Amino acid sequence: MSHSAPNLSSKTVPTSGPITMVDAIRQAMFEEMERDPAVVAIGEDIGVYGGAFKVTDGLLAKFGRERVIETPIAETAIIGAACGMSFLGLRPVAEMQFIDFIACCFNQVTNFVAKSHYLWGAPVPMVIRGPSGGGVHGGPFHSANPEMYFVHTPGLKVIYPSTPSDAKGLLKSAIRDNNPVLFFEHKYLYRRLKEEMPPGDYTVPIGKAIVRRAGRDLTVVSYAAMAHTALDAAVELAKEGIEAEVIDLRTLLPLDKETILASVKKTNKLLVVHEDTRTGGIAGEIAALVFEGAFEDLDGPVTRVTALDTPVPYSPPLEERFLPNTEKVVAAARKLAKY
Amino acid sequence: MTQSVTQPATQQLTRAQHLDLYYYMQLNRQLEERMVRLFRQNKIVGGLYSSLGQEAVSVGTCYALEKRDWIAPMIRNIGALLVKGVPPRDIFTQHMAKFTSPTLGKDGTSHFGDLKVRHIVSPISMLGDLIPVMTGVAMAGRYLGQHIVALTWIGDGGSSTGAFHEGLGLAASQRAPFVLIIENNQWAYSTPVSRQVPIQNLADRGAAYGIASAIVDGNDVVAVYQAAKEAVDECRAGRGPRLVEVKTMRMRGHAQHDPAEYVPKEMFDYWKGRDPITLYEKYLTENKIWDAAAKSEIDARIERELDVEQKFAEDSPLPPPELAEEGVYCDGCHKIEADWKRAKSEVSPPKSSIDPTWRLKDLPAYTQAAITGGNGAKNPAQKPVTVPAATPPASPALQKPAPAPAAERAESQPEHLAAGVAAEDPTVPRVPFGRGPKDKAFRQSSENPQNKPAYSRAPKEKSFSRAPLEKSFSKSPRQKSFGKNAQGKPFTKNPQDKQGRR
Hints:
The structure holds two protein chains of two kinds.
Chain A: H1 21-35, E1 39-43, H2 59-63, E2 68-70, H3 75-87, E3 91-95, H4 106-113, H5 116-120, E4 127-132, H6 147-151, E5 157-159, H7 164-176, E6 181-186, E7 210-213, E8 218-222, H8 225-239, E9 244-248, E10 251-253, H9 257-267, E11 270-277, H10 282-294, E12 303-307, H11 316-322, H12 326-338
Parallel strand pairs in A: 1-2, 1-3, 3-4, 4-6, 5-6, 8-9, 8-11, 11-12
Antiparallel strand pairs in A: 5-10, 7-9
Helix pairs in contact in A: 1-7, 3-4, 8-12, 9-10
Chain B: H1 2-6, H2 15-40, H3 55-62, E1 70-72, H4 78-83, H5 88-95, H6 130-143, E2 150-155, H7 162-174, E3 178-184, E4 187-188, E5 191-192, H8 204-209, E6 212-217, H9 221-236, E7 242-247, H10 265-272, H11 276-286, H12 292-315, H13 368-371, E8 385-386, H14 406-412, H15 415-418, H16 440-444, H17 453-456, H18 459-466, H19 469-475, H20 495-501
Parallel strand pairs in B: 1-2, 2-3, 3-7, 6-7, 6-8
Antiparallel strand pairs in B: 4-5
């Protein structure tokens, strides 16, 4: 075994040209840790190995073991320790190797972390990030979208970006936020798209949705990988003369109600697409929101295209059945547009 | 470790410190006695959890800390809050849900904290969670160069939680300056320790994590202080974490509603004779540390203080209803700033940069000695040390219970076993340990259920393994119980299903 000096050049992030979401997230980590020594990373296999998806690759070489803390397989300990560190003014970024495993520390997140500020005035400036979502045949325990457990937990913020630049800008905002932020990284998007990063130290505000495509016939609200499905569907629909307005939520909690309501008031029809399961998914919440805030403006039933109410199945034909796709979105949108 | 704790206490504590310990224990007790009265007057909104008989644990352990150190109390550690400088009014107002309480009425009991001044992390009701949290506090303190120690308590009951074990594992692997006090008060609500764990000393848990641990008599405040001080000093010197099991007794029920009739009278009687305040008063008198005048002076001071504090709480208003809507997020209401006691450059590149490869010296398990548990394996743990002077005399109530007689054991077994029915169908032989279903020898053996005619030669079995995937899927005998979807309708898998089977 050679003990040569680390080859840092191979471990750093590309600084120019379009980059993947993995590299965008890495870039955010590098920049934030460089900017503020209060930022530390904690998680399983995030050091020498660089994380299961290599999101933290190179951090250990640059920032050392005091700031890149590799832990036993103990999610409750990871979140608990990150929370304790934040009480002393650190800003830990805790990685769940797969976001599915956040279920192992559900209590720590929902009862301790989320409630601290409300109950006893202790802010918890920490981020919990991890790969989520299906479509990669990860099976029932490596494909989940557990965001709604946490959207239902006051005190947390929940982010679910769909593009590399949003991922970078939102992760930076999350690290600088004074509240516990859950940062979902859709693993289907990790390496499938590339984007040029805006220059400089830019951030994307938490709690602001974005209109990805303007349209007049109906509003399609979505987020994460499904934002791309919705955009693909909008292209198909345009061929039939149906102009869909596509909103990418980006942040699920707090929800950008204004952007949704403004769009629905314009298009008068709402379709919500998400990869999360149907019952208790955010579509229901958005529907209620629109009934409360824009009922008179609606010209058709609020419609949902979501995953099935089942665990995420493993085999490709099963997972395909489980997940929403462009055809399903187009079909639902077509029906709604004709209503 | 035994050495220092067996030294005469008078060599270590000054007279003023000795009197401090008495003051805080008595303040703890009198405060709680007043709260019992308030509870009976319906002035306490929720539950009231007593630490009667456990005052020496809270006070003795917390007294071993410095001002800069951090604690996270449990619900019965009111004495520790007092030692940390929390005024009694905070405890009154918390219990009475007043607007003047530290949480403004948003939570009760000792569920409050103070990050900036007193360094207290609020507990939550889910036991064990504080252990990883305080491990993180200890790690952050070390990272910032603050030389602090983080300390928390856990009950005998809470020592069974997953968070306890995950937290101790992380604390040990990080060598965190963290002290865990296991406050063994013999009862987890109504369940005695002997029914929770099959070991006599909870301190033994420490060894499994490579954490040095000690056992101390929890009703001897000086012994508790010394054991805690030793643990705190070790942590501050970089030899943490440490674990101290403190054996004591909960002298009331789980909370006010619980008369604790399940506790044998003899056990209460035994521990009544070991009341920590009575014992300590005797100790102070015998060692001529105080006299009657000194005692009555402290007692009168406590009464005076508590009168004022209680009146403040009773006169305080309840919170305005609209407060319920405030404070979910920190929108800049708190300034978050780490208190750096070391140069930031030490943890920033280039100083922080390392060669991130594993070295052989980090990986002892490549020598035979290490594999067989010999000198390659590192285990810094010491054996748990019992503090001799402090060990309570044996009493029938404290003996480790003898193994239950056979009849009783059967009773406590799961129903299907107690009834004499085996859990498994005895006609189905188990797959021998270590052999999967693909093991050739097992496949051919007569023990294999598949080789028995009744089992294995059914045509369906054949089709399962040989037919193309889809067919075998539809014909598998399992599929009838395949399940239903969320709409309550059975799953249909392909047209054959509908035609042939339903």
